[in-house]
């Protein structure tokens, strides 16, 4: 295979391919779609459509993450980000996210496998002139994946920025 030929797609996911380290958060695996709301003291409130995709690399202790949002009505792209989630057996989780804006997040947090809640706190927000801190909380409730993102800037304290409810498709 030469450098210009892409590798073949990975085999279809099966539960047998899920690394034991990601089993406690394997409920994330798949594609989620829904609607969200955003706002902040320095911007006008807005609504958006969203899709999240979580996938595993067979035999690896990591989840690949991709997210995209669009304007409801027109479908015009708004935001995209991708990264990796690495849960650990002790209930901690490391997450790296690269946003389409050039901003990069390194987050650490915890997961509760029984209650299906993941709490993330930024350790580093890179390439950001204004953003100082980001938190994300994901929760699976009645089969829906919800999240809340809070943000602090050099002008504001930590406060709600985004929230959404997504259904697995």
UniProtKB/TrEMBL annotation:
PANTHER family: PEROXYNITRITE ISOMERASE THAP4, THAP4 PROTEIN. InterPro entries: Calycin, Nitrobindin, THAP4-like_heme-bd. SUPFAM superfamilies: Lipocalins (SSF50814). It catalyses: peroxynitrite = nitrate. Residues 22-168 form the THAP4-like heme-binding domain. Gene3D superfamilies: 2.40.128.20. It holds the Pfam family THAP4_heme-bd. This is THAP4-like heme-binding domain-containing protein.
